[in-house]
């Protein structure tokens, strides 16, 4: 690269880094593919942190393995890049030890619902006060395009070239059934919507489950593409009372492209509040 071009890029990068909400971004440049939906999710995350006025030292970002696993590297906060499928148990342990921290856990659909799927019911039923963001692109990104637990039936992938034989999981329905006290869905192309949901999830006292619909631009050319998502995603409008499990379950079933908050129970005590209650 010639010197002039490099100076120009350095100057632009300095300007971007100086932007207020980007103080939550680490100096490391993301290694994700250009166009990946994860950039949008992180942008919304940084802006949520700014609007909640969180201090970097009050945040911990915990991830498992996958493209999504790299997330803590790009956040200017404490962070753990843990084992495949284990962001939830590590985040749980951390929250029990450091209740003062805002603990976020992230995972891809393979990480969270495949190898790590056994952790979800327990963090939900215990109502551990962490915010969990599922980066749901319905494909294994890092390992190059295998079917995941949310890949549609019959979709052709690198592991199932003639079509996925498995029926996909419905993450929102699962989170509701497991007893998550905050359940929401966002879309990587809707920065304002995601920002609001992440803020609400962070403020919620208990386990917050947020599914983000996001494209893997490299390994999915047919399903969760930007075009398909943009054409189909809309704002959920079914709710009058967010603490209504029956309506939320119906929406989980009937509105696979609806974004917003499906369910929130503010009456349940978080795990640590329960311990205090039992000990009082
Ligand atoms: C114990 C273990 N098994 C398998 C792998 C290989 N592996 C790494 S990431 C991954 C899946 C990634 O897909 P996903 O969780 O959907 O995340 P994405 O890369 O799309 O963000 C797999 C199977 C591993 N690293 N460790
Ligand atoms: S492989 Fe897919 S999920 Fe991973 S960074 Fe590239 S576009 Fe994003």
Characterization of this structure:
- The protein is globular.
- It has 10 helices and 8 strands.
- The protein is an alpha/beta fold.
- Helices cover 36% and strands 15% of the residues.
- It starts with a helix and ends with a helix.
- It has a single domain (38-279), classed as 3-Layer(aba) Sandwich (Rossmann fold), CATH 3.40.50.
- Strands 2-1-3-4-6-5-8-7 form an 8-stranded mixed beta sheet, with helices on both faces.
- The structure holds thiamine diphosphate (TPP) and iron/sulfur cluster.
- Thiamine diphosphate binds next to helix 4.
- Iron/sulfur cluster is lined by residues 32-33, 36, 38, 67, 137, 141-142, 216-219.
